[in-house]
């Protein structure tokens, strides 16, 4: 078992029987059940701050969370969107053993955020998903994952605070799209400040700034960056 994992294995015994883990209130409309279905995989092509924002609701509610394969993770940014650093495990670079590390963490954490180096082989996916189903947690993938129950991505983004090439960045307004399988198949969307001027996640007005029309691409995120 990876060092540090044993510290939270006991948390699995304390997991509630609730079928849904909470998300931030501004993200609830993006999930059919208003939260993260236990036993499910949520893919976030592009990863970034959106994946941390998805983790934040469960973390703030007291769930143990882990982040695997993101050595460059900005803890300050994670805290800014609501992640509790006191209940978060970091495994920066597990290498080829990332499936085993992920499975071990799923036994002790209610939510695990991973950034796999590549699309896993079918037998690796089955192993990880089998552990996920048994443990009743949620797997958030910063990237794509074939067969994920939900997929969320930033379709359009605009940084605020820049004017004609100069100024100070104050926040980023994004258009988030969501789709999935089964009950989550119906697309959903939300405009957000991610991050806002205070570093947090808040609703954004879609009518300001003159952004280009968002583009949806079923194969992955389509991102248009428009100067502020």
Which terms would index this structure?
alpha/beta; Rossmann fold; 2 domains; 10-stranded mixed sheet; two-stranded antiparallel sheet; 18% helix; disordered N terminus; disordered C terminus
Derived structural class: alpha/beta
How would you classify the quaternary structure? single chain
Count the DSSP helices. 4
Share of helix among residues?
Answer: 10-25%
What's the end-to-end separation, in Å?
A: 48 Å
- SS strand fraction: 25-35%
Please name the CATH architecture of the largest domain: 3-Layer(aba) Sandwich
CATH superfamily of the largest domain: P-loop containing nucleotide triphosphate hydrolases
Description of the structure:
By secondary structure, the chain is of the alpha/beta class. 18% of the residues lie in helices and 29% in strands. It is built from 4 helices and 12 strands. The chain has helices at residues 48-60, 75-80, 98-106, 122-135; strands at residues 20-22, 35-37, 41-43, 65-68, 88-91, 111-114, 138-141, 150-163, 166-180, 188-193, 202-203, 224-226. The strands form 2 sheets. Strands 3, 4, 5, 6, 7, 8, 9, 10, 11 and 12 form a 10-stranded mixed β-sheet that branches. It is globular, with a radius of gyration of 17 Å.
